[in-house]
Design a protein that fits this description.
The protein has 548 residues and is of the alpha+beta class. It contains 20 helices and 19 strands. The strands form 4 sheets. Strands 1, 7, 8, 9, 10, 11, 12, 13 and 14 form a 9-stranded mixed β-sheet that branches. A 5-stranded mixed β-sheet has the order 16-15-17-18-19, with helices on both faces. A hairpin with an 8-residue loop joins strand 12 and strand 13. It is elongated and about 95 Å long. It starts with 20 loop residues before the first helix and ends with a helix. About 6% of the residues have low confidence.
Length: 548
């Protein structure tokens, strides 16, 4: 039929992604790990518009990034672009805190900032590389010494360890543009050509040594024997070998890089690092130490990268150099890495309660029950239809991953009670009397007590729930709580069926036990305790601190 409208393309634009709920659970978990690591190192989160001034990215001619921008003129005629990376936005924000006539900062240095921006580059898509991606950035502004690099490299290793990646899986290649600068100066490369030369050398993995030599001769003007010597030196396996081949000996630049490896050894992550003279990073603004994370199995592309960029702010009008160092860490490649190493967490959809009404007349009371449970901090999903046939409500609860079902029926409601059944915490042969409790309406905030999972009453939420109750709500019938606190010896067995040491809600007991284990034995060996430990570990430190 010609008049029939053409079907829309259901695929997202090339190089982009849809995030369905299961994907968002994975993303939230990953971003939580990024944030938790940054918090452990004392960093603060920031953000900036995804739409940026195009001129921020036109630092030097010939950079690949300037050819990959999603840039255009907006309706006011301004030249703008979807940000291809975050560092120039960071530079703009830092400069806004500075008096440009004197270079004095209004903020107290050092700045330790992190962000997880969405970035856009029009490039060839492949595994671990999209045209849009989220990138975890951590940057330190105002620390000139090598300690800043040592901290950032430590943060990267801490993150990897938190998601189950070890130094057997991933390594960090480290080099220094200062060392390379000394080499190029000895080779006769003028300072004005230094950044361009670095960009050419960085292409070695893509275009090969022969083509790099050709470009060094044609674009930089080096003699062929000098170009070959530089390329040969970048193949050195150790810092000492590179220094000897390049003729820079025991220079200050070499000493600084050697001190970074020494600090890493003291810090406890020396086994993650290796010297690689071919790593120079493709962006022109790097000035000192540069580094890249790589998959030791050789399956995936560079996992992360960064380095020192002390001169970047001067490109934007800063009257003096400001020491800066940072890294970027894309989400696409880490997701692929987790799959490769079989450490992607299983994160099913879950909700604490499904509330079901017996018939249409009980829908109003059921909504009141849902309201009370939510005021008590419980997550609740309302079953949308009357549930005379309870099997339908059970099926719905099973699909949503509910832990309990609250049935609101006339008989219990007339007595001020709500019948609640636990679906996950007991074995199949457990009597219904233990799985199912009639809980007073006015005490729903303390529902866990009735299943033996909480010892202290949540008085404030209960009072709030009573205040919100309609005048027609029946008075609560007396009922006794059952059960009690679990003993330490039964912790493993208890955690087989429960997500937390107190049942189904995190508490200070979880935080205290987690902190104790982390300081002493570390990750437990027994399966239930190990699962619990890794789950508690997935929360940000600030979230754990708020548990009562």
């Amino acid at each position: 039929d010609k008049d029939k409208k053409a079907a829309i393309n259901l695929e997202p634009p090339s190089g982009t992604r849809d995030f369905f709920p299961a994907d968002m659970r994975q993303q939230s978990w990953l971003f939580g790990k990024f944030r938790e690591t940054a918090a452990l190192y004392g960093f603060q989160e920031y953000d900036a518009p995804v739409l940026e001034h195009e001129e921020l990215y036109k630092r030097k001619a010939g950079e690949e990034i300037t050819q990959q921008m999603y840039n255009f003129k907006d309706k006011e005629g301004a030249d703008v672009t979807l940000r291809p990376e975050m560092t120039p936005s960071l530079a703009r924000m830092v400069l806004s805190l500075m008096r440009l006539d004197t270079g004095e900062m209004a903020a107290l240095l050092p700045l330790k900032w992190y962000s997880i921006p969405q970035c856009w580059r029009f490039e060839t898509t492949q595994r671990g590389r999209k045209r849009e991606h989220y990138q975890w950035n951590m940057d330190i502004v105002g620390v000139p010494g090598i300690m800043a690099e040592a901290e950032l490299l430590s943060a990267i290793c801490t993150f990897f360890e938190s998601v189950g990646i070890t130094s057997n899986d991933v390594g960090l290649k480290v080099n220094s543009r200062k060392v390379l600068g000394a080499v190029l100066k000895n080779a006769g490369v003028p300072d004005a050509k230094f950044a361009e030369t670095c960009v050419i050398i960085d292409k070695q993995d893509k275009i090969g040594a022969e083509e790099v030599c050709k470009e060094l001769c044609e674009k930089v003007g080096l003699a062929q024997d000098v170009a070959k010597r530089i390329v040969a030196a970048t193949g050195a396996k150790t810092l000492d070998e590179f220094a000897a081949l390049a003729g820079v000996g025991d220079s200050e630049e070499v000493k600084e890089l050697r001190s970074l490896f020494d600090l890493a050894g003291h810090y406890g992550y020396g086994d993650w690092l290796q010297f690689d003279a071919s790593v120079v990073r493709g962006l022109a603004y790097y000035t000192g130490v540069v580094f890249e994370g790589f998959d030791k199995a050789g399956v995936l592309r560079a996992i992360c990268g960064g380095g020192r960029y002390d001169r970047l702010l001067t490109l934007y009008g800063c009257p003096k150099e400001v020491p800066c160092v940072g890294f970027g860490f894309g989400d696409c490649v880490i997701v692929e890495l987790l799959k490769e190493k079989s450490v992607t967490p299983v994160l099913p959809a879950t909700v604490e309660y499904v509330v079901a009404a017996y018939n249409q007349e009980m829908m109003g009371p059921a909504l009141n029950v849902a309201r009370r449970l939510r005021l008590a901090g419980k997550t609740v999903d309302m079953f949308p239809d009357p549930a005379k046939q309870v099997k339908k409500a059970f099926n719905y609860a099973d699909r949503t991953g509910a832990l309990r079902v609250a049935f609101v029926a006339p008989q219990e409601w007339s007595q001020g009670l709500v019948r609640i059944k636990d679906l996950r915490s007991f074995s199949q042969d457990t009597p219904d009397a233990e799985k199912q409790k009639d809980v007073p309406l006015d005490d729903l905030a303390n529902v866990d007590v009735y299943f033996g999972l909480q010892t202290a009453a949540a008085a404030a939420p209960a009072a709030t729930a009573r205040a919100m109750a309609p005048a027609s709500a029946p008075a609560a019938a007396p009922a006794a709580a059952s059960g009690g606190a679990k003993s330490a010896s039964g912790m493993e067995a208890f955690l087989v069926d429960h997500p937390y040491v107190g049942g189904f809600k995190p508490s200070a007991r979880d935080r205290e036990l987690f902190d104790e284990l982390r300081r002493s034995t570390g990750r437990p060996e027994s399966p239930a305790l190990r699962r619990w430990y890794e789950h508690i570990e997935s929360f940000e430190q600030s979230q754990r601190a708020a548990w009562a």
